[in-house]
Amino acid sequence: MSPSFFEIVQLNNGDYALRRIDDDSAPLVRISFSNEARDMLDDKEMSVAKAMIAAGIEAVGSVTHDIDWEDDELDVSDAQPAYTLH
């Protein structure tokens, strides 16, 4: 299987999206900022969107690391993260 390459783009409606470079289907992730948030970010929406996507990828990596994908019945106590979500 060939590796996938991803890009972060700004959509026509102002949202940001993560998508595969070679695929025009629906984005994998879409980030939408309210007008109030856009005002507070002072034209730094792309930087914040990149940081949010990077944090999401890191979180998925740590969560999937703890999951035994071969086990049909996941023990809920084993799936508890080693951090507190705020």
Automatic annotation (TrEMBL):
The lineage of its organism: Bacteria, Pseudomonadati, Pseudomonadota, Gammaproteobacteria, Pseudomonadales. This is Uncharacterized protein. It comes from Marinobacter adhaerens.
